[in-house]
Amino acid sequence: MTGYLKYLIDYMPASGDQFIDTPTMGHMPFHGRGSVNTTNMTLRDVLYVPGLEANLVSTGQLAELGYTISIGPYGCRVYKDDEGMDLVGKAHYVDGHLLELDFLRFRASTNSSTGLCLLLLDFRVYI
């Protein structure tokens, strides 16, 4: 989810009143959905929630993409199993049980040695 319409490509407005339930922010209306495009990958089905001050990444969607999420007292780690468990993301706790993303890199392919950090300097990302 994002509150920044400018980051969405292929934006499709929602038909009628659409809502999403979140564990920490309650029942929130969203106005549409689109994709966030980076150099190495596209995150699809990103909801546009006007007024949302932080961006949210779904751990369920990361798991569907083949990433392993480990949550413990230290925070969260995101791994990709490409011939070994490579650390590709990390988050720390803020405000109790909310995890703020430190970084999250996606590789273009399993043969690529370069990653792209999805964090942009003008907003925070939570998982």
Automatic annotation (TrEMBL):
It comes from the Eukaryota. InterPro entries: PolX-like_BBD (IPR054722). Residues 1-67 form the Retrovirus-related Pol polyprotein from transposon TNT 1-94-like beta-barrel domain. This is Retrovirus-related Pol polyprotein from transposon TNT 1-94-like beta-barrel domain-containing protein. It comes from Triticum urartu (Red wild einkorn).
